[in-house]
Every structure is written in C-alpha cells, then in structure tokens.
Write a structure and sequence with these properties.
By secondary structure, the chain is α/β, with parallel strands linked by helices. It folds into four domains: 187 residues, Rossmann fold (3-Layer(aba) Sandwich), CATH 3.40.50.300; 282 residues, P-loop containing nucleotide triphosphate hydrolases (Rossmann fold, 3-Layer(aba) Sandwich), CATH 3.40.50; 142 residues, no CATH class; 162 residues, no CATH class. The protein is 48% helix and 14% strand. The protein contains 36 helices and 27 strands. The strands form six sheets. Strands 8-18-17-11-16-12-13-15-14 form a nine-stranded mixed sheet, with helices on both faces. A seven-stranded parallel sheet has the order 3-4-2-5-6-1-7. Helix 20 packs across helix 21, helix 31 packs across helix 32 and helix 33 crosses helix 34. It is globular and about 85 Å long. The two termini are 48 Å apart. The relative contact order is 0.08.
C-alpha cells in the first residue's frame, strides 16, 4: 500500500495561524525541506501529519522518545482516521517499514548499528546495516522524512540520518520548539544541513490570541549565598588578587616574555602575530606595565600612532597566562618547570579548567552560585507564597537536575544537613517545614514518593491500567509518606499514574528531574513551575518552561507562573555568573513584560528589575516580585493589552552606540563636505551676480567696458561653479541625511545589505513588500529589523547586518573610505560580510552598492601582505575597544 485512504483527513477546523502556515506550504518546500519552529501547544504533531498527507508519499517519522513516538500514532488515528484501532499499514518497527513508519532517534540508530565483528562472521543479529535499512525504505518508496524535536544533534544519530537522507532523497519536514541557537557554529551548520533553514516560525503571541496557551509570566527570585558560601567566594577573590599580585612581580615570567622572538624580532614573525594578536598584545601590555620600553617597530606593526598601551588588569592577565601556558609551548620550552608549577597551581585553585583560564567566571565559582543552599530557602518561600494564594488549587512542579538519594536515611529521624540542591533535599526542606499540610511528592526515574493520603487514588489509577502487585514501604522517619517500589511491572506506567494523581489534586507539589519531566511530559493543570535547574541552554530551558504554559480545557481561567532562581554575588559588579546565565536564558523565550505599559519580548530587561547595586535591595525586589505573581487577574489583562499592540513577532538587531562610531565619523565627514560645498556655492553665487553688483558701484567710472568684460567672465565662472558645486552640495546633503542620527545610520547600512541579499537571491520577496524599520533609544542603542520577508530572509538579514557592524575580525575583503575632512586623520574600514565575499565579483558588487548608498570606497583584499597588515591594525583596535555586545531581540509589534 503506498497511497493514503481517501477519507484520511483532519476532522476539525484549523486555527488561524495553522491555516496561514498551510496556505504557504508550496512556497516553503521549494528546496525539498520544510523547517518549522513553534512553541509547545501549537499543534506541531498535527501540522506534521497534515503536511505528510498533502505530500502524499510513504513517510518515516522519527521522534525523540517512546512516549512521543506513540503520541504520533495515537494522534493520527484519533484526529485523521477517527478510530482507536491502529491500522496494519502503520508500523512502529523500523526494520519492517509501512506506509507510515514511526520510530525513535535512538531506535533508528541502534537498529542500524551493526558491529564489524558481526558482519565478518555473518552472525545473526536483530540489527541491520544502514545500507539494508535504506534498501527497505526505498522498497517502500518512502518520500517524506519527518524529524520531530529536530534539535536532537547527537553526532551518531546525525550521521545515520544524513546517510538515510542522502540515499532516499526525501522531502524533510523538521519540527522543533527549540532551535539550538546556542550551539557552536559547526553544530549549527550540521543542524541546518540536515533540517534545512528555518522556513516558518509560529510565535507565542499567535497561540495566545487563539487561546492555545494560557496567560503566563516569568518571575525571578533572588537568593544570597550562605555564610559558608560567602566565605568561599571571598576566598576565591582573595586568591585571584594574590595571583594578580604575584604575576605583577614574577621575574621569570617577565624574562620569558621579554625573550620571546616575537618581541625581539617582530618583523620576522608577522604571520604569528596576525594569528595570535591577543597573545601578542597581552605581552606588550605586560612589558609596558613592568616598565620596559616598547620599541617603535611594535607601534608601526599595530598601527598605533599615539603609542597607547592599556593598563594591565585581570583581562590582560588571563590573555597573558593563556599565551604563556597554552598557546606557545615551543618558544617557552626553557621555562617548562616554571610553567608546570604555575599551571598546577592555577588548576588547584580552580582558575584553569579544560584549557580555559578564568578568574571570575570559572567552573568552581559558577558551581558555588548555581548550587547555593540559599536556593533551598528560596524554593520554600515560593512554595509557601503560591500555596497562600492558590490553596487547594495549587499544582506546582519543581524541576531539578539531580535526585540526591543520599539525603534519605533509614532512621527514625532525618536530621541530615541539607547542603546541596536535588529532588530529595528539596523534598526534605518542604517536608520538615510543612506547617500547612501541603501534599508533596517526588517523581524521578528511580525514586517515587507519594503522600499516604493518595494511596487509594494510586490504587484506582493502577486498576484502570491493569497494573497490580505494587508494593510500598513507609518513609522510615515519616509515616505520612510512601516510597513506591519500582518493579519492572510498574516502571512503564508510573509517570502516567503519578501525573493523573497530580492532575486530580492528590499531590499539589511534585518534585522531579528535568530528564524525566522535561521533553514530552504533559500535565495541563500545572499552574506553577519552579526551575531549580542549573541549565542555561536554549533547548532545555525552553522545554521545561513549555510544561506550564499549556491551556487546561477544564479551566478556562488558568494562568501560569514560572519561577527562576538566581544567587546574587554582591562581590561581582555585574551580580555574578548565576545572574549572567539567567540573562542568557531569558534571550531564548518570548514573554510578557512587567512594565507599566506591557510589551511582549525576549529579554531579561522586560522584568523591569533595574540595576541591583547591593545585596540590601534583594529583599525589596523579591517582595515586588511576589506582588506581581499574586496578581494573576492582572496578568490576564497585561497579556490582552500587549497582544492588542501587535500582529507580528519580529526579530530585530540591537547595536550598542560604540559599535557605530565609524558611521558617526562618516556623518562628520559628510558635514564637512556639505560645509565646503556650501562655501563654494556661495562664492559661485557672488561671481554669478558680480556684473550687477560691480556696475552698480562703478557706474560713473570711464573704464566701465573693461569692468563689464571682466564681470561677464566672472558670471560665466559663477554659473559653472553653481552647477558643479550645487550638485555636490545636494549630494552631500543627501549623504549627511543618511547619517544624521543613529537610526538613519543603521538604516543606510541595512539598505546596502538588503540590496545585496536580493542580488544574491537570498531574499526572494518582492522589494515592494519589504521595509527596513530602524530606531534608537535614550541609551543610544540602535535597533533595526526587516519587515515583510519570511523567517529565513529576516534571519539572514539580521545575521549579515550583524557582521557589518561587528568589530573587524578576519574578513576576506574590506571596504576602505579615505579621510576627506580635516578633523579625521585615519581612514575608515568596514568588513564585507562573508556571504558577499565568496569571490571578487560578489565583493565588487557589494562595493558598487556601498558607493551608491553610502559613499565612495576602495575594495581591499586582505589575503595579501599589505591586506594582512591592515587587518592586523584593525584587529588590534578592536581588541582595545572591547565594543558592546550585539543582541537579537524578538518583539510583538504592528
């Protein structure tokens, strides 16, 4: 059987955003790929099944877990076939493909993983080779490959799927709620190679409008380190300062740096300097700090006419030690004993880990803040607060990373000091201080604890699933709780059973691990989530958040609070690494702001917390957060107000003002040109009207004829000058207007990018439908986005514009604009983005567009000796400037 039954169709109506997406299906699959990013609750499974039917080919569906695999089959039968019976043409065995074959990533990989030893001896195995698997899929004429939760990037799985994809050449449908934007560039390229570029994004606000997600908000609770942890942090800072003091006076290190060939004969090592500019600069900074005279040749190499050398600080010490210990073993081999001693001490004190030297963002420091015991108290405060508001309606899940069974014991009392974060320590903290008789439970892969009061409910759900013979044991030190013995009989059903008890209110606070209750788990009645997890990755944090934002059919008024825990480091000017990780996490999802005029965006700033200057503010901030959390009715109204403000979620780039300094210089350059041309126009006007002026003054002079002849000549010169300089004045005014403020500057650059992306056929949307929108804020940050393009086009626009405004690193081509105004004594350079620098022809077209829209420039190829010298100077300047971080923001606007 290789065609779907005629009556196979979706039995319900499509949501507006789903219909909008399906209407553009033909446009999306032009490249034989369809890559969709959509949040939990958007119906990705249903959309995937509908796309499969429209393509009309036998399909292979790959899912991340057994539960999600079974969900695909269940949804197809219920919603498309209107039956609970699975037809025989749907296979869940990859070795026996059917019209529809559904398997897991792990299943498809392990099935095809035949060892060389088995192949050589011809041994019988349940496994089949990849080539045999491909033959069976080809025989079944599989033409559609659906990758659910497509962010699963394990190398072995990727290789197997890429081989399948290459051989059977299917249409690939990739579905994910969480594209892995935070992976390395190489991993991202592999992700795109398998799944294709992102074609469409279904945004959270669209689902909110349709009622597919409930009103929800992110809340941050700040904690402080315990006294013991504070002492560790203080010791860490003391040790770092002591190390800095030591390096400042290390005579052996000074000798090693001073004798390095790159400082002795730098002209012989230009290639090394080019490839190691930060190491080279750190040595110069250190030598200057130690009172050594820096020869002029070094300033010539780095193009620093002012001979400026920055102060030696922790940043430069990290660069210097990286240079001395990790970068150049050959030229420091005479100092091996000193280097080994230094390296071992750095490792022991936690400043060197996995070949990364860091004094304040180290693994040890991060671990102290991440797992701070203060967070246990924070969880208890949040639990008590939410219970005081919701009482019996509370359905809270607390997700953490580890179980920590060692905090259980078999005695009559459990007085173990709770000094780590984990499922059991959290349970113990809440159990020991449970004065309100809250119903608390644990659900993990190897430990399940339920209140005694839910025993009857547990038995009822077991009977429904035909599970019997379950044994329990009382918690040794608290008879109000039961530990379920996880036999093989119950393991497959325990998650469903405990979830049903939680849904029914038998458990109000469920503590679990992210590995079990992360991807694919669903409990619609959950109204509060506490993320007691240390993950900061895009994928995991978004998955966990997605558990609480789903709607509940039985409660139209459901709202969700999502609590994040941060341990504040008062000794760090930025609040510490835990806060920095949280800010990164907030970039990965869109939510409602806490501002007076609410907006929908994707950054930490939307919480409107402001700058925390000292730890004394923490208590006040937490109380303000509790006020926001309590007003769930106000949350509903804030979403309504914010949703009414927009109809599209745009991705925009935020560029700090310091990244736009060259454009500011260009503005002044054009201002100078404008002033010069204006002066020339005035002179030309005087010459033009010379005749009338002179005749009026000298009408009684006998030599009038000769004066008249001269004035005619002057007038002719005036006419010519007025035409020439009038045109130049007009052009310089236009150029100045393009750069007169930050918004105009970024818009001018964006226009160049769009024109070239259209020429490269990266943007295929008609230019009449496109509009560049730019603005700048009071803080002088610049914002820009492209309106009218599809998801892929907008993403490429943002990425390319970012290359253009980022500090110069290693571009293949540069654009050089010569100084033309006396105030500016250096030429300006701009990188040609990589997509336009593949060859000289493309780069020259980019230059041509630039000359027309920005101003005349020269194209510089950096892979020559002269080009590399220029690049070296520019990279040195970039290193010193330490420009601000460019951000990508998502905002709901009209």
């Amino acid at each position: 059987m290789n065609v779907f039954p005629k009556d196979t169709t979706f039995k319900y109506s499509w949501r507006a955003y789903q219909k909008k997406f399906l209407d553009r299906l033909d446009e999306y699959i032009v490249d034989n790929h369809l890559h969709v990013s959509a949040p939990p609750g958007s119906g990705k499974t249903i959309l995937g099944l509908e796309m499969m039917l429209r393509l009309g080919n036998p399909a292979l569906i790959v899912a991340p877990t057994l539960a999600i695999k079974n969900q695909w089959i269940q949804r197809f039968c219920e919603l498309f076939l209107d039956t609970e019976t699975v037809p025989d043409w749907i296979s869940s065995d990859i070795k026996k493909p059917g019209l529809i074959t559904v398997c897991t990533y792990q299943g498809i990989h392990s099935t095809s993983e035949v060892s060389e030893e088995e192949e050589e001896r011809g041994a019988k195995s349940s496994k089949i080779s990849v080539s045999e698997l491909i033959k069976r899929l080809q025989k079944q004429k599989v033409g559609t490959l659906i990758l659910d939760e497509a962010h699963h990037l394990k190398n072995a799985w990727w290789r197997t799927l890429m081989e399948l994809k290459t051989e059977i050449n299917p249409t690939v449908i990739a579905l994910t709620a969480t594209p892995p934007f935070d992976v390395s560039g190489t991993e991202w390229q592999k992700y795109i190679q398998l799944n294709g570029p992102i074609d469409a994004e279904i945004a959270v606000p669209e689902l909110m409008i349709e009622g597919d997600l409930c009103p929800h908000q992110d809340l941050v609770y700040f904690t402080l380190p315990s006294l013991e942890e504070e002492k560790k942090i203080e010791d860490y800072h003391i040790h770092a300062s002591a190390f800095f003091e030591e390096i400042q006076n290390d005579q052996v290190l000074l000798d090693a740096i001073e004798r390095h060939p790159v400082y002795q004969v730098p002209m012989d090592h230009l290639e090394w300097i080019y490839n190691n500019i930060s190491s080279y600069t750190s040595g110069l900074v250190y030598l200057n700090f130690r009172g050594k005279k820096i020869p002029d040749i070094h300033f010539e190499i780095i193009g620093d006419q002012q001979k400026y050398i920055p102060e030696f600080d922790f940043f430069w010490m990290e660069e210097l030690l990286d240079f001395y210990l990790l970068v150049d073993h050959m030229n420091f081999k005479d100092y091996d004993e000193h280097r080994t001693n230094l390296e071992n001490r750095l490792k022991r004190q936690g400043f060197l880990d996995q070949r990364i030297i860091s004094f304040f963002n180290s693994k040890n420091m991060t671990q102290i803040l991440n797992s701070s015991i203060g967070k246990l108290h924070g969880i208890k405060e949040i639990v008590d607060f939410e219970f005081s508001v919701l009482q019996e309606e509370l359905r809270m899940v607390i997700l953490t990373d580890f179980i920590k069974k060692e905090y259980l014991n078999t005695g009559e009392q459990n007085n173990i000091t709770l000094d780590k974060i984990g499922a059991v320590p959290i349970f113990e903290k809440l159990r020991r201080e449970n004065f309100q008789n809250k119903k608390i439970g644990i659900l993990t892969g190897s430990l399940v604890i339920i209140p005694v009061s839910t025993k009857r409910m547990f038995d009822e759900f077991c009977n429904k699933k035909n599970v019997s013979g379950i044994t329990f044991s009382s918690l040794a030190y608290d008879q109000d709780y039961l530990v379920i013995n996880l036999s093989e009989q119950i393991k497959h059903n325990i998650v469903n059973i405990i979830t049903e008890i939680f849904q029914s209110g038998g458990i109000q606070i469920l503590i679990g691990t992210k590995s079990l209750l992360g991807e694919g788990w669903d409990a619609p009645k959950m109204n509060t989530l506490v993320l007691a997890s240390f993950v900061s990755s895009f994928v995991l944090s978004n998955q966990m958040r997605g558990r609480v934002i789903r709607t509940d059919k039985e409660n139209e008024n459901k709202t969700g609070n999502i609590w994040h825990l941060v341990c504040f480091d008062s000794q760090d000017i930025d609040g510490g690494q835990d806060l920095n990780n949280m800010k990164r996490r907030f970039k990965t999802f869109v939510g409602i702001s806490h501002k007076t005029d609410p907006t929908i965006e994707n950054n930490f700033e939307r919480l409107d917390i402001g700058v925390i200057e000292n730890k004394n503010q923490i208590s006040e901030i937490n109380q303000m957060t509790f006020s926001v959390a309590k007003d769930r009715a106000g949350l509903v109204q804030r979403w309504k107000t914010a949703l009414d403000k927009g109809n599209i979620l745009v991705e925009e780039i935020q560029v700090p003002a310091e990244n736009m300094t060259t454009m500011d210089e260009l503005k002044m350059d054009y201002l100078g040109k404008m002033a010069g041309n204006l002066t020339k126009v005035i002179v030309s006007s005087v010459l033009l009207f010379w005749q009338d002026l002179l005749l009026g003054l000298l009408k009684n002079i006998d030599s009038i004829n000769s004066v008249k002849s001269f004035s005619i000549l002057a007038s002719l010169l005036g006419i010519v000058g007025l035409c020439v300089y009038g045109g130049k004045l007009y052009r310089s005014i236009k150029q100045y207007r393009r750069c007169m403020n930050l918004a105009r500057q970024i818009e001018s650059l964006a226009n160049v990018i769009v024109s070239n992306l259209i020429h490269e056929k990266v943007i295929r949307t008609s230019i009449e439908k496109l509009r560049i929108v730019s603005s700048f804020s009071k803080t002088k940050n610049t914002f820009c986005y492209l309106k009218g393009g599809n998801q892929y086009e907008n993403s490429q626009f943002i990425q390319t514009l970012q290359e253009l405004v980022s500090p110069i690193d290693n571009p293949r081509y540069l654009l050089k604009q010569k100084k033309s105004f006396i105030l500016f004594r250096k030429d300006r350079y701009y990188p040609v983005p990589e997509i336009f620098a593949k060859n000289k022809k493309n780069a020259e077209f980019f230059k041509k567009t630039w000359d027309k829209m920005i101003g005349k420039s020269d194209l510089v190829f950096t892979r020559t000796i002269d080009g590399r010298k220029i690049l070296l100077k520019l990279r040195f300047q970039s290193l010193l400037e330490k420009n601000g971080r460019i951000e990508h923001l998502h905002k709901w606007i009209r």
